[in-house]
Amino acid sequence: MQKEYRARVSMRNPVHFLALGFGSGLVPFMPGTFGSLAAVPLIYFSANLPVALFITFTLVASVVGIYLCGKTADDMQVHDHGSIVWDEVAGMFISFLFVPITAPTLLIGFLLFRLFDILKPWPIGVVDKRMHGGTGIMLDDIIAGIMTCVCMHLVIHLWPAVLLIF
After folding, report:
1. Which domain, by its residues, includes 131?
2. What is the pLDDT of residue 9?
């Protein structure tokens, strides 16, 4: 992160702390990947939560993320700076809705989510380019999470043997 942007955020500010993925977005290379990785232990430890609570947390993370990411982008004076990674955290949670949390599913889900987030196939790329503010920052990763979730369910139900490879 360039110094002038870094000076505009504080890890002591809870909004910035969350938007920067608990600090994972400050890694100077591949911040989106590190933001996604920051979600993995949270997802793993959420595996035993009742489904309704997992869904509630996912929805709250997604909706509150609009404010967190928008406010932090405004404070940085840069739209969707790479260090803002709460959208990846929320997208990763969406990826695992109704998916059993195991080491293989975490790995496959992480890889699929990163693939969608990096390549930005339709409609992710369209949303990424046309929407702005907190909603724009969050929505492309929400869609990537939905696409990942659909793929995860296809893998689990149509090709379950792939889960035994890992």
Report:
1. 3-165
2. 86
* DSSP per-residue codes, the chain: --HHHHTT--TTSHHHHHHTGGGGGGSSS-HHHHHHHHHHHHHHHTTTS-HHHHHHHHHHHHHHHHHHHHHHHHHHTSTT-TT--HHHHHHHHHHTTT----HHHHHHHHHHHHHHHHH-TTTHHHHHHH--HHHHHHHHHHHHHHHHHHHHHHHHHH-TTHHHH-
Distances (CA, A) of 144 to 9, 25, 117: 27, 18, 6
Give the pTM: 0.93
The total number of structural domains that make up the chain: 1
